[in-house]
């Protein structure tokens, strides 16, 4: 496990993914179990978009998070 905080790991993942975004099921693979709480905290300082994933015309339980821009 990394020495980075969960918020730092979320940001690292979002930055690396860019416009592809990070799907919610990817966070637990990196030890981030309460990712929605971490993203909620990060939204105070960053613009993070959440999109529900549509697969072949059907909505899924998968959400994709995209870092839109870093606030100054």
Can you describe what's shown?
Helix 1 packs across helix 2 (35-42). Strand 2 and strand 3 (58-70) form a beta hairpin. With 72 residues, this protein is α+β, with helices and mostly antiparallel strands. It has one domain (6-70). It starts with 5 loop residues before the first helix and ends with a strand. It has a three-stranded antiparallel sheet. The longest helix has 12 residues, at 6-17. The chain contains two helices and three strands; from the N terminus they run αβαββ.
Annotation keywords:
single chain; 72 residues; alpha+beta; 3 strands; 28% helix; 35% strand; globular
Question: How are the secondary structure elements laid out?
Answer:
Layout: H1 6-17, E1 22-23, H2 35-42, E2 46-55, E3 58-70
Antiparallel strand pairs: 1-3, 2-3
Helix pairs in contact: 1-2
Question: How is the main sheet built?
Answer: 3 strands, antiparallel
What is the alpha-carbon Rg in Å?
A: 12 Å
Strands ordered across the widest β-sheet: 1-3-2
Principal-axes shape call: globular
Low-confidence stretches: none
Order of helices and strands: HEHEE
- Give a count of the beta strands, DSSP E runs of length 2 or more: 3
* Amount of beta strand: 25-35%
User: How many structural domains can be distinguished in the coordinates?
Assistant: 1
> Distance N terminus to C terminus?
30 Å
Number of helices: 2
Question: What structural category arises from helix and sheet content?
Answer: alpha+beta
Helix content: 25-40%
Overall residue-averaged pLDDT value: 92
